[in-house]
Amino acid sequence: MVRRYAPGWLVEAVRPAPAAPDWPRMIRTSVSTVAPMVAGLLTGRLVAGVVPSMGALNASMSDKSGPYRVRLLRMGAAALAGATGFLLGRLFAGPGWGPVLVLMAVSVVAALVSTAGDVGSVIGLQLLVVTVLGLGMPVPVSPWPGALLFLAGASFALVLAIAAWPVRPRAPESTLVAGVYRSLAHLMQSPDEDRVQAYLNAGKDAYDAVLSARSSALGPDLKRNRLVALLQQASLIKNAVLALRQEGVRPPGEYALLMSRIAHCLAGGKARPHLPETGDDDTSSLRALRSAAKGAVELVTGARVEEGQVILEPAARRHWIAKAWDHVRYGNLTRVYTTRLTLCMGVAGTVMQVSGLQRSYWVPLTVALVLKPDFGSVFARAVQRGAGTVAGALIGSVLLATLPKGPAVLVPMALFALLMPYGMQRNWGLMATFQTPLVVLQVDLLAGGDAGLALVRLADTLVGCAIVLVLGYLPWPSSWHAPVGPRFADAVRAVADYLRGAFDVREPDRGRARKSAYDAVADLRTVFQRAIAEPPAVSRAVTTWWPAIVAARRVIDETAAAAARAGHGGHVPARDDVEAVVRALETIADRSKAGREPGELGRLPDEPPLDRVAEAVASLRDALHDPLDGK
Questions:
Q1: Residue 217 confidence (pLDDT)
Q2: 514-550 as b/e, with b when 16 or more CB fall inside 10 Å?
Q3: How far apart are CA 131 and CA 227, in angstroms?
Q4: d(CA 55, CA 52)
Q5: Which residues contact 125 (CB under 8 A, 6 or more apart)?
Q6: What is the pLDDT at residue 481?
Q7: In the chain, what is the greatest distance between 2 CA atoms, to the nearest angstrom?
Q8: 394 closest CA partner among 368, 428, 432
């Protein structure tokens, strides 16, 4: 059953919500945003702290958990893009059509750069947003000094984010791996689907972070190799737990405690974990669990790890300009998106220049944030941002009407800056609820204002959302079709590739194939989650894909469990039986990509060890009848 909250398009998050607030990031954002204002207050120039405060806020919002090197790259790119945008905005600010042409040119660059990956998306967003701010905000500084002040504030936020790097250079990666073992402890206590998914999410984040840090290291890095090996061992433990679940057996409680102790050790604890004495391991699943847990204990307690023991994925070295150019040449979606963004920003810029709206730069700012340079749910962002701005505008009005002018505004600013990262992690509406009063207070410091300023922000936001929906959403047929079907076919093919080598101990890439299969299904779930945040005309059609997505995940789980048993004394399937199931999966992938029902799949094995895998594949086939009707 699909988890949805009514109305789904209003409150459904575009990104999965985190389990808990990221307090360190929230505190850093608050401190870095308010500190320049405090410095300005102490020097008698409170207004002078607004521009570096803006730079710090923009850099902080670009931060994510992960290796320090990656965070440095993201935040540094955001700082440089923001400073460039501020400079462009201040240089071309003024009446006439020049600002509109600048906005459209920057929109093209932002859309194309954002196709080059995660860092490219950060660059594109910051370049576009801060250009709008530079064009419209009443900033009492000239272009070059203002850009340097913006860069100084962003640099301060960056220093706060990576301050612990010299002391604990691998702390972020270790923390993420510790989270994987905590999720294993929870999974052992209650191996339901939610906890399996929580483990998969934690594992994907940890793998991405550790492999990214490891691939960028200069020379051998045995400590990060150990973290990669621990992640691979965690995957083996999870497979054994799934095998036990199939048998109706819960792992001994000592193993859940062991996983918690391993996590504590990885997080900096001194106590060494020890393998529990649980008596005889009389099944292949229990033997697989004990063997995998023993390997994890040995890794944590200091076993030597050689380069050849772990699977190291090569880093992608292609230059981002080449990647972006490939997207332009071969990606129709990129060209369409660039056109949509440029059109909407051009109209919003025209509104900014010719309308009578007070400080109407908020109109293109809204368009930039809603049509954010990536491929998320435009409709959900527009509606969520509009609803959040209503709440934020009311809060801002109350604050401007009740707070005395001057230093008193720093207290609510610190609070809203603290809450903004949490809002971003949940949904665009909550982020706008915290962002609107914060920016209103900053503008009030720059140019003065009253309670009506927040209401002006509300009117501007509604105009911006209307531009996005009318010009950037409704006229484009691609907006009304979610790409769930093609991504589903790719995920099923990844599952087939994993199954082909899952039982061959001589296959060097079977661990990588398993990870690729789980990642493909996780990405498919993300596409589906975004699609059900669209209006009912779109979401109703894609909701029917959910049983097939669940069934695809079940095929991987059943395969992983069977492989775990086979590796510890259980039956190894015949090669012909494996190929029969692989052919069935490839048939499903090919026919679903062509929009056809899978039909008959041929003979599938009905005896152990592949009987449960074959049942999962049959369930996958049965689940596809409705989705292919609605595509």
A1: 56
A2: bbbbbbbbbebbebbbbbbbbbeebbebbbbbbbbbb
A3: 41
A4: 5
A5: 110, 114, 368, 372, 373
A6: 67
A7: 82
A8: 432
Cβ-contact 510, 498 below 8 angstroms: yes
Phi and psi for 52 in degrees, rounded to 5? -65, -30
Nearby residues of 319 by Cβ (< 8 Å), 6 or more positions away: none
What tokens were used for 441? 């207070």
pLDDT of residue 8: 43
Model pLDDT, residue 417: 95
The whole-angstrom separation of Cα 159 and Cα 122 is 18
Strands (E), 383-496: none
CA 241, CA 234: separation in Å to the nearest integer? 11
Angle between helices 332-354 and 362-370 (to 10 degrees): 160
Q: Contact, 609 vs 570, CB < 8 A?
A: yes
Coil, helix or strand at residue 520: helix
Question: What was the pLDDT predicted at 626?
Answer: 56
Cβ atoms of 464 and 364 within 8 Å: the answer is: yes
pLDDT score for 543: 82
The dihedrals phi and psi of 315, each to the nearest 5 degrees, come to -75, 145
Q: Is the dihedral of CA 419, 420, 421, 425 positive or negative?
A: positive
Which 8-state DSSP code applies to residue 116? Answer: G
Identify which of 482, 523, 411, 437 has the alpha carbon closest to the alpha carbon of residue 630.
482
Could you tell me if 95 and 194 are in contact, meaning their C-beta atoms sit under 8 angstroms apart?
A: no
Identity (one letter) of the amino acid at 373?
P
Alpha-carbon gap, residue 300 to 313, rounded angstroms? 22
The rounded distance, in Å, linking the Cα atoms of 364 and 353 is: 11
Q: What is the pLDDT of residue 332?
A: 61
The CA-to-CA distance between both ends of the chain, in Å, stands at 19
DSSP H helices, 270-377, are 284-300, 320-330, 332-354, 362-370
Question: Using CA atoms in the order 616, 618, 620, 622, what is the torsion angle rounded to 10 degrees?
Answer: -140
> What value does the CA radius of gyration of the chain take, rounded to a whole number of Å?
26
CA dist 509 and 31 (Å) reads 46
Three-state secondary structure string covering 413-427: HHHHHHHHHHHHHHC
DSSP 271: P
List Cα–Cα distances, 367 to 3, 143, 343, in angstroms: 29, 24, 11
| CA atoms of 371 and 379, how far apart (whole Å) | 9
Could you tell me the pTM of the whole model?
0.81
pLDDT at position 3 = 40
With beta carbons less than 8 A apart as the criterion, state whether 630 and 538 touch: no
Distance in angstroms (rounded) separating the CA atoms of residues 479 and 473: 6
Low-confidence ranges of the chain (pLDDT < 70): 1-19, 214-221, 278-281, 303-333, 357-359, 373-377, 444, 447-451, 478-482, 505, 537, 626-631
Question: What is the per-residue pLDDT for 544?
Answer: 82
User: How many angstroms separate the CA atoms of 536 and 287, rounded?
Assistant: 49
Confidence (pLDDT) at 561: 93
